[in-house]
Amino acid sequence: MIDMDTDNLPLMITSNGEEIYRTEDSIYIRLPPGRAVLSTSWVNGGSREDLTGVFNHQPLHHATRSHDLEGGSVEAYLALVSGRLGLDPDKTAGLLTAARMKHAAVVTEAFRGVEVTAIVTAGIEVNGGRAGDPASYFQENGTVEMIAGTINILLLIGADLPAYTMARAVITATEAKTAVLQELMAPSRSSSGIATGSGTDGIVVIADTTHEKRLTDAGKHAKLGEMIGRAVMKATRLALERQSHLSPASQRDVLVRLNRLSIHEEDLWTRATRMAGENRKPLFIRCLRETARDPALLASATAVMHIMDEIAWGLLPETAGRAAADRVLSVMPEICGIVPDEEFSFLLGDDEPIREHLPITIAWIAKQRARGE
Predict the structure, then answer these.
(1) Residue 54: partners with Cβ closer than 8 Å, 6 or more residues away
(2) For 55, 135, 242, 341, which has the most beta carbons within 10 A of its beta carbon?
(3) Domain identity same for 186 and 210
(4) Cα(8)–Cα(193) distance, rounded to whole angstroms?
């Protein structure tokens, strides 16, 4: 694993001779002859064997539309960046991101003379999305919405890969990225689902056509696929922690988890004001935040949320799922060390959906703790 918090240039040189550089706003790679590239770049993208450079770049000023970029389009802007990095615009592919280059992560996996390096920048807090979520726009006249947040992957593979294997590498790397987001329960910003990526993710795969080893399988059964998966997962996890502060530790908070359901502190406070007892907002919010970090509450609340997911995915019948969730909710105060009273039983006694009973239960527990202070 490479520490990106250094200003030494070049950042590193791979065992196959690719030179990786970093500036404040870009990470770029000078490619030796004989490199095959498959990328999602707007310029010189797709499958190419004549490129001499690739890069990942953070524009200095965020543009909301592609025509707001310097040069008036994504293509023109990428060509300008190529030139400024000392690369040939006609033989360079590039990706754009709002993530900072100092937060990038580099991870290398090696086995029997084959080296796989993943360089990842990752921002997910603004435009995390789940495949199939409602779109934010329909493209017309070539104009593209520039939405902040992106997971970009530069993947260098020290072996000779045919084009179809490079395409398979894209699939494996994408699955690895999504696996990390699933494990971290990263929320979609367009639905109540778990994110599978951001809406603007990009990838560049580089293979060495001069390498003595020719590999044709980059799927999960092959060692190459394992190496790609491990490198991308490690780099993505580290980059998300650096850029978005998304980590297992940050997710151990009920309030963070409830964001996926668009339930926030103010919503819980509003529910608490309808319950018995004195309403002192500063005290309630403090107790709520302390309660939200209670592992017992987190375990039971996330169990209820997972039941909700399984109902939404069609894996649980709604009636059975609702009964199970209500049972967990009914004992949640006891799990947190609080004896439920008649008010609590009354609050859960109506026919409101699980999505309403969950915040009511959490607000009630936090208010009981506030009353005890």
Answers:
(1) 28, 29, 31, 37, 39, 41, 92, 93, 94, 154, 204, 206
(2) 55
(3) yes
(4) 41
Which two tokens mark 60? 């200095």
Q: β-strand 46-48 against 35-39: which pairing, if any?
A: antiparallel
Amino acid 70: pLDDT? 66
Summarised one tens digit per residue, pLDDT across range 298-311 is 999 999 999 999 99
Give the number of residues written for the chain: 373
Same domain, 235 and 320: no
Query: Which of 201, 114, 186, 195 shows the shortest CA–CA distance to 153?
Result: 201
Q: Does one domain contain both 260 and 236?
A: no
DSSP 3-state of 289:
helix
Helices of type H across 2-133: 74-84
For strands 26-30 and 35-39, give the pairing: unpaired
Q: How many domains does the chain have?
A: 2
> What predicted TM-score, i.e. pTM, was given to this entire model?
0.91
Mean residue pLDDT of the chain comes to 91
d(CA 98, CA 342): 51
What letter would DSSP give residue 244? H
Domain that holds residue 57: 12-244
Model confidence at 99: pLDDT above 60: yes
State yes or no: pLDDT of 133 exceeds 90.
Answer: no
Strand runs labelled E in the chain: 12-13, 19-22, 26-30, 35-39, 46-48, 53-57, 92-96, 105-111, 114-122, 128-129, 151-157, 197-198, 202-208
Q: What is the rounded CA–CA span in Å between residue 265 and residue 274?
A: 15
Q: Please check whether residue 2 lies inside any domain of the structure.
A: no
Of 204, 226, 244, the domain-final residue:
244
Q: Is residue 6 part of a domain?
A: no
pLDDT-derived band at 61, boundaries 50, 70, 90: low
